[in-house]
Automatic annotation (TrEMBL):
This is UDP-glycosyltransferase 89C1-like. InterPro entries: UDP_glucos_trans. PANTHER family: FLAVONOL 7-O-RHAMNOSYLTRANSFERASE, GLYCOSYLTRANSFERASE. Belongs to the UDP-glycosyltransferase family. Keywords: Glycosyltransferase, Transferase. Pfam families: UDPGT.
Length: 459
């Protein structure tokens, strides 16, 4: 990691290995101890940035209760350890829903079509939260919920007479497109969710003014107020395996392997987030390309979801013999991957990604060239912005069922670690702007300060 990036990480983390510094920062900050209730959505791409945002709010002096169900507690444990005096958990059982398999509490265990079911199921926590609120000696002044939960958290705020603030872990471009096209949305769940987001007292977006200032202004126009804060890129409070769960290769072994790479920016990282699982033909094409490219690589593989029938029973299976043939040159990691740590290692040069926004920001902070393969939801918006508008990334192919040409992909992978590529140079300039935004007195840093100041004035 470069000196500037390291400095930014250390400053934003509040020296996370030093509890005294965190306590001093909290005591001298502007939050004045106002209490908020944080309700994240249980998907890795949502709950982790929400935890990182909550860390920033705690550093600024807010008192926070974060609501989770039992199986999602590990996601917030690092936050609770860092802020034992100001952040506490409210653990409520995951409600029954007829369409959700027993024991499922997180999106990483199911496919994307379960999203509305999980959001709806969590809505059954409405009454238990009201009971908790009314019995609390110092109840929250605001509810800070993921935008996917707006359908019931907005109503909850109205019932309790407190403000509702939405958190969007994606970018302002997606928010603007959702607002601009809400009347054309034929999915009732997403249409109503968007309308409630537009009615929120405030909205926090994981992006920054230098990248999306014009779109942030357009979002404010739709919401008819200025309480829209671009606070990104949010820096992980913990980068290791403790952020996600079990893994086939321990974090220290992964980092030791990267340390052994003698050439900087020479390794390709391949990962498609917590939801995407490649089918057999895609796995074969990608493995063939990695083998032919002759580059060093790390490949994060999502294995089939247990207990949930896939459209193809062979999803996420690495072809026989592949790992033996690339032994020493590549790592295949199954399960959780310490992605932020990997992308910030000096050895990583490029990142083949689905282009989910959290992954984009992690790649940006790491300063690695993005090779995009958009597949669903916001991936296409992100790719269009990065490739077509900004010219800072490379489109490989697109589509959930697309199968890349392995020969062409091998060539792109080999070329992607060239440090003199124009798109890499342009991406590094954007990275500098992102790091400036999160430094003290940067646009995102000041936006967080303003957010906390406004919350501190609520009754």
């Amino acid at each position: 990691m470069g000196a500037l990036a390291a400095m930014s990480y250390k400053r934003l983390l509040g020296s996370s290995d030093n509890q005294t510094q965190i306590k001093e920062r909290e005591m001298s900050s502007s939050g004045k101890g106002k209490h908020i209730l944080v309700i994240p959505f249980p998907a890795s791409g949502h709950i982790l940035p929400h935890v990182d945002l909550t860390h920033q709010l705690a550093l600024r002096g807010l008192t926070i209760t974060i609501l989770v169900t039992p199986k999602n507690l590990p996601f917030v444990n690092p936050l609770l350890s860092l802020h034992p005096n100001t952040v506490q958990s409210l653990i409520l059982p995951f409600p029954f829903h007829p369409s959700i398999p027993p024991g499922i509490e997180n999106m990483q265990d199911v496919t994307v079509n379960f999203l509305p079911h999980i959001a709806t199921a969590l809505g059954q926590l409405y009454e238990p939260i009201i009971q908790w609120f009314r019995s609390h000696p110092s109840p929250p002044v605001a509810i800070f919920s993921d935008h996917l939960l707006n359908l019931w958290t907005h109503r909850l705020g109205s019932t309790l007479g407190i403000k509702s603030i939405g958190f969007m872990p994606m970018n302002a471009n997606l928010v603007f497109n959702c607002f601009a096209n809400v009347d054309e949305q034929d999915n009732v769940f997403f249409r109503e969710m968007t309308l409630k987001m537009m009615e929120s007292w405030g909205l926090v977006i994981n992006s920054f003014t230098e990248l999306e200032g014009d779109r942030l202004d357009l979002v404010k126009g739709f919401m008819k107020h200025d309480r829209v804060w671009g606070v990104g890129p949010l820096i992980p409070i913990k980068g290791g395996s403790e952020r996600g769960g079990p893994t086939s290769i321990p974090t220290d072994e992964v980092m030791a392997w990267l340390d052994s790479c003698q050439v900087d920016r020479s390794v390709v990282y391949v990962g498609f987030g917590s939801q995407i699982r490649l089918n057999k033909k895609q796995m074969e094409a990608l493995s063939d390309a990695l083998e032919k490219s002759e580059v060093r690589f790390i490949w994060a593989v999502k294995e089939p979801v247990k207990g949930v029938k896939n459209e193809e029973d062979d999803q996420g299976i690495v072809p026989n013999g592949f790992e033996d043939r690339v032994a020493g040159r590549g790592l295949v990691i199954r399960g959780w991957v310490p992605q932020a740590m990997i992308l910030n290692h000096r050895a990583i040069g490029s990142y083949l990604t689905h282009c989910g926004w959290g992954s984009v920001l992690e790649g940006l902070i790491g300063g690695v060239l993005l090779l995009t393969w958009p597949m669903q939801v916001d991936h296409y918006f992100n790719t269009n912005m990065l490739v077509d508008e900004l010219g800072v990334a490379v489109r490989i192919c697109e589509g959930l069922d697309a199968i890349p040409n392995s020969k062409n992909l091998a060539h792109i992978l080999a070329e992607s670690v060239n440090e003199n590529r124009p798109d890499r140079i342009a991406f590094m300039k954007l990275r500098d702007k992102a790091l400036d935004a999160i430094k003290e007195d940067g646009s995102s840093y000041k936006a967080l300060d303003d957010l906390v100041n406004q919350i501190s004035n609520l009754n």
